[in-house]
Design a protein that fits this description.
By secondary structure, the protein is α/β, with parallel strands linked by helices. It is built from 9 helices and 6 strands. The C terminus is likely disordered.
Length: 279
């Protein structure tokens, strides 16, 4: 085949691919309406269309920005105070800045100083403590943290004694073990910004640890993730799941791999009643 013939054949294949892509667009458009995954992107020759490449780069930039941004702690404190379970206690991890936090995950797992908690509250018979941590997406905490906390308080306050909230910066999940122990909370909930992805940069997760203390492992926690309404899990739905887990942990005596999510409406009600009676 001559060079001219190869060129014409290649052009023909490109036209056929373009027609096939156009013919399948309604199919992909319908699927894209129910997922944030990057599907049915099409192609131009052997590459992605320019618009799709630019969308990818933009999403990558948003994810990077979400990791490196800082939380306006004063503004966050005002919104958390309005939830009505006490003035937030501010702490930070041993990581001195964001760069060190990203390089040294171990430093983000320990508070720089727990005296702020000891000076504010005496270890008491709190049933549930809350730690609002920036994690890998401070943007998620700023966007969803106060409203998610309010939903949790609405769900839990009728049944449990709630500790004043703690706001932790440059923080990893395990910092909640130290802070929950300092509060004297039977169960600690860490609301933390999850690692941003190329579809979602502001997703929040909740990590539950029963009887928190330094040295707890990830196998001793339960996680409710992907909280970012309206696309992800809603605040009240997440709070209902957590209520079931809190009650289940109290009934079981521990959290982690042995504790299962029974977040159906009847299961939650049953677990709450059982947890209160045994706790």
């Amino acid at each position: 085949m001559s060079a001219g013939d190869e060129g014409r054949a290649g052009a023909g294949r490109a036209r056929d691919a373009g027609r096939a892509s156009a013919d399948s667009e309604p199919f992909w458009r319908e699927l894209r309406g129910v997922t944030q995954a990057r599907i049915g992107l099409g192609r131009t020759g052997d590459a992605l269309p320019t618009a799709r490449v630019l969308e990818f780069r933009a999403a990558h930039s948003v994810a990077r920005d979400a990791v490196h941004m800082s939380v306006d702690v004063n503004a966050l404190c005002e919104r958390v105070t309005a939830v009505g379970i006490g003035m937030p206690i501010r702490v930070r991890s041993r990581a001195r800045d964001r760069a060190e936090y990203l390089r040294r995950p171990d430093l983000g797992r320990e508070p720089e100083d727990s005296s702020a908690i000891r000076n504010t509250v005496s270890p008491s018979a709190f049933d549930v403590g809350f730690v609002l941590a920036d994690g890998l997406s401070p943007r998620a905490l700023a966007t969803h943290g106060p409203d998610l906390l309010a939903a949790l308080v609405d769900e839990l306050a009728p049944h449990y004694a709630l500790a004043p909230p703690v706001i932790a910066t440059q923080a990893r999940v395990a910092i909640g073990d130290h802070l929950g122990a300092a509060l004297g909370a039977r169960t600690v909930l860490v609301l933390i910004g999850e690692r941003p992805g190329l579809s979602v940069a502001d997703s929040l997760g909740i990590y539950l640890t029963h009887h928190p203390r330094p040295g707890r492992t990830d196998a001793e926690r339960n996680c409710v993730s992907n909280i970012h309404p309206p696309e992800g899990l809603g605040y009240r739905q997440a709070a209902a799941v957590v209520a079931g887990l809190v009650a289940g942990a109290r009934a079981l005596g521990r959290s982690g791999v042995d504790l299962k999510d029974g977040s159906g409406a009847d299961a939650v009600k049953s677990a709450v009643v059982e947890g209160i009676s045994k706790g």
